Amino acid sequence: MKNRSFVSITDFTKDEYIRILNLAEEFEKQPTQKILEDFVVATLFFEPSTRTRLSFESAASRLGAKVIGFSDASNSSVVKGESLKDTILTVANYSDLIVMRHPREGSARFASEVSSVPIINAGDGGNQHPTQCLLDLYSIRKTQGKLDGLNVAFVGDLKYGRTVHSNVMALCNFNTTFHLVSPTELKLPSYVKMHIKNSNLEYYQYTELADVMKVADIIYMTRIQKERFSDPIEYEKVKNAYILTANMMEGCKDNMRVLHPLPRVNEITEDVDSTPQAYYFQQALNGVYVRQALLSLILGVK
Amino acid sequence: MENENIRKELVVSAIENGTVIDHIPAGVVFRVVRILNLEATGTQVTVGFNLESRKYVRKGIIKVSGKFFKRAEIDKIALIAPTATLIIIKNYKVIEKRQVVIPEEIHKLVKCVNPNCITNSQNVDTRFKVIDKDDLRLQCHYCEKITAKNNIEII
Ligand SMILES: [Zn+2]
To answer: Are the Cβ atoms of B117 and A8 closer than 8 angstroms?
Structure first.
């Protein structure tokens, strides 16, 4: 993986994911290791995402790397009127690796083609956010003790949720059975379902969250956004239909865990937080270990 | 019989050197003229459409004098008129006749349908993988979105 960019979840193979997850496990045991002291990591956030940026910067800092960059393009003199290409070429002079988030889809792929240093995509518009996917895989493996042969339920906006699409694609490598819970107008796109079929795996579609509570090993919740609906009446109809509450946990599998990419709005009530099934805050922390693993593999020190 | 002769004549006779684009599906003839910018070639161009055809109920034909198309231009024709045949004529003789082929990858020819794609906001050449040739579907190399047949806009 040395010197390779990580733009899309399909850039790495199943074996490479496993290698990243195994290394992340080592970092979880010992998060502070000064193995990147000779490196400069740039974090270029052309649109703000405090959560993701802090996770990357924390990962880089714990490994001893210097971090440079900007957290919001509007405050940055580098970006005013400057083309993305010029910004990347400039920053590549000052750093060994660039982590970038950009509102335009395809921006990270383009950056990886013009940059002399590897690019990690920390989100390109609605397209890809592959490190989120890796940390989800890590969380699933950690809570279930394995990745293979699980029943994974995805709930909420399955049409526009890019994390859902990437996770489904990645999980197709691991013999997963998919349970897809969404309002009819926010069903998983057919090309993603096609990917499941082509992997010879099964998926089941539901409109009721209650229907998957007993079968799921993982329930992956996502937010349903009002602006996704052309008809506001449709939104009003479904907005409260996909809310997970503590009393719904009754009868669920002991090993079942609830994941959510965060931030949540109201789709998981706060009484769920204290149940043994809640895993979403730990999930976010796992992002640091996964990003540590990725940084050290791409920079070639592991 | 007479019809057939007229048709043949229309296809080949008037050109000494050049290319005939035959079997263009009805309805896209002028689109082909436009994407190849044939009005600006300066040579003689003859356009026929609503012609009877055995294969297609109605077809169009374009004869371009003194012009031999380059790869990128042929790719453009293939995208708009996948059934088209190119007939290369030298010294009044047909020296080659071939069906256009939709390429595996398409560079700098088509605009990405996704308004939020990086290729639509910065100076980035478009690039697509052809994922379905029969029911033309192109996947953007950058934003990964699909541009389908009815959305194809030639640059
Ligand atoms: Zn695109």
So the answer is: no
Q: How far is A63 from chain B (nearest CA, A)?
A: 31
CATH (residue range A31-128)? 3.40.50.1370
In this structure, CATH architecture of domain A131-284: 3-Layer(aba) Sandwich (3.40)
From the candidates A129, A141, A162, A165, give the one annotated as an active-site residue.
A129
pLDDT on residue B1: 43
The reported pLDDT for the residue numbered B2 is: 46
Binary contact (B144, A103; C-beta < 8 A): no
Cα(B15)–Cα(A180) distance, integer angstroms: 62
CB A211 within 8 A of CB A153: no
Rg (CA), chain A: 19
Position of tokens 């890796």?
A134
Burial annotation B129-140 (CB, 10 A radius, 16+ → b, else e): ebeeeeebbbbb
**What residue ranges define each of the domains in chain B, with the CATH number in brackets?**
10-99 (3.30.70.140), 105-154 (2.30.30.20)
Contact A110 B121 (CB under 8 A): no
Tell me the DSSP string of B51-114. Answer: EE-SSSSEEEEEEEET----HHHHHHHHHH-TT-EEEEEETTEEEEEEE----SEEESSEE-S-
A52 is catalytic: yes
Domain with CATH 3.40.50.1370 in chain A: 31-128, 131-284
Cα(A13)–Cα(A32) distance, integer angstroms: 28
Question: Among this protein's residues, is A237 annotated catalytic?
Answer: no
* A65, A40 contact by CB (below 8 A): yes
In this predicted complex, what is the ipTM? 0.89
Q: Which residues of B45-72 are buried (b: 16+ CB within 10 A; e: fewer)?
A: bebbeebebeeeeebbbbbbbebebeee
Q: Quote the minimal CA–CA distance from B88 to chain A in Å.
A: 39
pLDDT at A178: 98
* Catalytic-residue membership of A43: no
Q: Do A107 and B118 touch (CB under 8 A)?
A: yes
The C-alpha angle A168, A174, A180, rounded to 5 degrees, equals 35
B108-125 average pLDDT score? 95
A104 touches chain B (CB under 8 A): yes
d(CA A274, CA A251): 17
B49/A255 Cα distance (integer angstroms):
68
Does B139 have pLDDT greater than 60?
yes
Mean pLDDT confidence for B19-44:
90
